[in-house]
């Protein structure tokens, strides 16, 4: 069981900002920006590189809910970054697909 599954099951506390039947969104415990939220599907999809056609609705839902949370939390208009890591070389730390929503500062390129 991943740490995200434990948060979804309420076995580990988290500062939750949004939840519905498909996903949960909460503050990252090691933020990389003034606003750093994690949008996690309740269904455990290991990583985007292993998603299947049946995950299409969940993946689309995550993107739309990222927009909803950005509006709810007040950073939609100023802009935000969505990052998905997939696999060990990407920096993935938890083998459960999740979106990083980063905001509150100017984002640079490259993304390193």
Summarize the structure.
By secondary structure, the protein is an alpha+beta fold.
Radius of gyration, rounded? Answer: 13 Å
CATH fold group: HIT family, subunit A
Strand order of the largest sheet: 1-2-3-5-4
User: SSE order in H/E notation?
Assistant: HEEEHEE
List the helices and strands and how they pair.
Layout: H1 3-8, E1 16-19, E2 23-27, E3 35-41, H2 56-73, E4 81-83, E5 99-103
Antiparallel strand pairs: 1-2, 2-3, 3-5, 4-5
Task: Summarize the structure in words.
- The protein contains two helices and five strands.
- It is an alpha+beta fold and 112 residues long.
- It has one domain (3-103): HIT family, subunit A, CATH 3.30.428.
- The model has no long low-confidence stretch (mean pLDDT 94).
Which key terms come to mind for this protein?
112 residues; HIT family, subunit A; alpha+beta; five-stranded antiparallel sheet; single chain; 2 helices; globular
